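Hi U.,

Before I forget, here's the chain from the pilot set. I'm dumping it here mostly so it's searchable later in email.
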Amino acid sequence: MRTPDVYPHARAGRPLPENGRVSEQPGRYQRSAAGMIGAMLILLAVVVGFVLFRDAIREDPQSPVKTVDYHRTLGFAREQATFDVLAPERLPDGWRATSVEFIPEPFRWHLGVLTDGGEYVGLEQAHGSERSMVSTYVDREAAAGADVVIDGRHWSSWSDQGGDRALVRANAGVVTLVVGSVPQDVLVDYVESLR
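Structure:
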């Protein structure tokens, strides 16, 4: 039986490597800082190319928030209610109604819209107290601000620490509240559009 030739170098008259197995010849590829930087740039170009390709062929998912037509519900609410149900005749460009609800007993009217910047503005009308409406739709810890006069009517202003603002008006037992995370002048413009 023949033993395997573990050290062919010794037979050829060459010295054995120190550990008996590792060659002293340099590696096949030269390694340098410039080579590493070049490889990183190529990898970066591939990643950027992939991202650009993916963005070019990807379709943005549709927003889960659906636009609703509030005019039909508004017409029904105005027929049923014993006082003025308020809503804008037309929303500003880029705004869209996303929720509408009318409950006849106990009376409650809601219209939720998103601004062209994607911020929420809600209109709430119900029987009750101003403080309970503010507590429900703004914050239990909401702070009262200075009154605002809109079309000759006084509206109280409220805000919370999270950035929500509201304009509230009580009239004949019905509280109207307009709330949103928009600046107060946007709320004022929205209230001016209510009919």
